[in-house]
Design a protein that fits this description.
The chain is of the alpha/beta class. Helix content is 38%, strand content 27%. It contains eight helices and eleven strands. Strands 5, 6, 7, 8, 9, 10 and 11 form a seven-stranded mixed β-sheet that branches. A hairpin with a 3-residue loop joins strand 6 and strand 7. The longest helix has 20 residues.
Length: 264
């Protein structure tokens, strides 16, 4: 996931959660949190207990997130946010808690006289995590047309530009899907599997090499020790676990989207 995509994601996250944007540029975002969002992400239980028990006027926090890596080492005040950072993981978790599945309908244009036909799409946001002693995370947003099976990447960015609503607008008709959403989900998981298979996996061998190096160093310190202490086995196991390589594909969220706009 590119830093630009992270910036767009957090901007949309706070907009959809009714947090006012106080300042925004290509490298940072400052938002005024709502009371609910402050309670969810700022970890201030004692403050909110004091406010609610004492009848004090609440003062939700302002939050500045720096999204441009070139600013990470500067004196700009704010939290540095990138893929793998605790704050971004927290926003993903809040998204999951609020609802992993939505159903949205594109609104017809103003003054639309004729009936509008909406085509069903399944949209799913995925996170791929490559883990060893180091972690690499990537975000993918896939969409499948449930009429013809066409798949596109960057689905979330495409629908972000559209005017959507939770209910069908007047003078619109949505097509019944040809491909059941569960079958479409299986096909999208196959696509993600192919993404992983085609990716560069030199990181696995590099992790093994670092593991071998650390095990050699460990063995060096115990060279000539006749009665090897229990700590040796403990340290060896810790090194083996540290460099264990795993690949995990997770669904962040998804939904059914009925669209009049062609994304192909």
């Amino acid at each position: 996931m590119r830093q630009q995509e992270i910036h767009q994601y957090i901007q949309r996250f706070f907009h959809e959660n009714n947090c006012g944007v106080l300042d925004s540029s290509y490298d940072h975002l400052t938002v005024q949190l709502t009371i609910d969002m402050d309670k969810r992400i700022m970890n201030r239980p004692y403050y909110w207990s004091y406010v609610e028990s004492g009848g004090v006027e609440p003062n939700p926090a302002k939050l500045t997130l720096i999204t441009n890596p070139s600013q990470f080492s500067t004196s700009m005040a704010g939290e540095r946010i990138h893929f793998g950072s605790p704050r971004l993981h927290q926003l993903f978790q809040v998204t999951k808690e609020q609802g992993a599945f939505v159903q949205m309908y594109e609104k017809p244009g103003l003054g639309q006289a004729t009936q509008v036909t909406l085509t069903p799409w399944l949209g799913v946001n995925y996170k791929i995590t490559y883990s060893s002693d180091r972690t690499k995370e990537m975000l993918y947003s896939l969409g499948m047309n449930l009429m013809n099976g066409a798949v596109i990447d960057g689905f979330q960015e495409s629908v972000r530009k559209l005017e959507l609503g939770p209910s069908v607008a007047a003078n619109t008709y949505y097509l019944p899907y040809n491909i059941p959403p569960l079958r479409a989900l299986d096909r999208l998981e196959d696509v993600m599997g192919n993404v992983v298979n085609q990716d560069d996996h030199t990181w696995v061998e590099e992790a093994k090499q670092r593991q071998v190096r650390d095990l050699r160093v460990l063995d060096y310190f115990y060279t000539g020790v006749e009665d090897v202490p229990e700590s040796y086995a403990i340290e060896k196991k810790a090194i083996e676990e540290q460099y264990e390589t795993t690949i995990r594909i997770e669904i962040i969220n998804g939904g059914l989207f009925y669209l009049k706009t062609s994304l192909l």
